[in-house]
Amino acid sequence: MFSTHREPIWSDARGWHLRHCPATLHSWLTDRHSLTKRLQQACDGQFRVQVVKQFWGRPLQSEREQLALSDHEFCFIRHVQLRCFDQPWVFARTVIPHTTLRGPLRSLTRLGSKPLGAVLFANPAIQRENLQIARLSRGQGMYNAATSGQTNDLDIWGRRSRFRFHHHALLVSEIFLPAHQAY
Predict the structure, then answer these.
(1) Mean pLDDT of the chain
(2) CA distance 94 to 171
(3) The pLDDT of residue 1
(4) Where do the domains of the chain lie?
(5) Closest of 70, 51, 48, 68 to residue 170, by C-alpha
(6) What confidence category does residue 42 fall into, taking pLDDT thresholds of 50, 70 and 90?
(7) Top-level CATH class of 11-181?
(8) E-assigned strands of 8-125?
(9) Are the CB atoms for 169 and 151 separated by under 8 Å?
């Protein structure tokens, strides 16, 4: 688990000034379609999901706010690497409240190496809501988790979205790693 202090500052993508991030990331950060599908195309079939860890835990403060959760609610949290050519290109963190895991979405705790995007974008009843962008820096918990503790002085960039299925929500953060930025 990582510290809740020093969270990234997430900003609404509609008001985001892309001049703050590398030009090569602009379209990746603002694309509202499936990142899984786009990575599969970019990786010439050399794409896979590697589960880093899954656990029940307390979301970060900003995640609780996005999901309208109390301070004491636990969620299912999944960390994965989206890998291209066996290099980690994206670190993804999914936060799913226990109330969302009832009914048809309860299988989300058993995805294994199946991409979450394949499930979310295959169901027309699941809607992507807001899209936010953040710069992550060394010393932030999510930065450290995304880079597997191999920190350097490079900032990395991410986006996050809330997905809604009827009255239930989940939050997906996607952090673009240096290997992706070199692409």
Answers:
(1) 89
(2) 6
(3) 44
(4) 11-181
(5) 68
(6) very high
(7) alpha beta
(8) 11-12, 47-57, 75-84, 87-97
(9) no
Token pair, residue 123, equals 């169901």
CB-based contacts of 11, cutoff 8 Å, min separation 6 = 132, 133, 134
Q: The pTM is what? A: 0.91
Would you say residue 40 has pLDDT above 80?
Answer: yes
Please report, as a single letter, which amino acid is at residue 172. Answer: V
Q: Please say if the pLDDT value at position 32 is more than 60.
A: yes
Edge to edge, the sheet with strand 168-176 lists 11-12, 126-136, 156-165, 168-176, 87-97, 75-84, 47-57
Residue 3 reports pLDDT greater than 50 = no
- Please spell the DSSP secondary structure of 139-179, one letter per residue: TSHHHHHHTTT---S--EEEEEEEEEETTEEEEEEEEE-HH
Residue 72: Cβ within 10 Å count: 7
Residue reference for tokens 């009832």: 102
Helix (H, G, I), strand (E, B) or coil at 111: coil
Q: Is the pLDDT of residue 129 over 80?
A: yes
Please return the burial class of 122, using the count of CB atoms within 10 Å of its CB with bins 0-12, 13-18 and 19+.
exposed
Residue 86, exposed/middle/buried by CB under 10 A (0-12, 13-18, 19+)? Answer: exposed
Radius of gyration of the chain (CA): 15
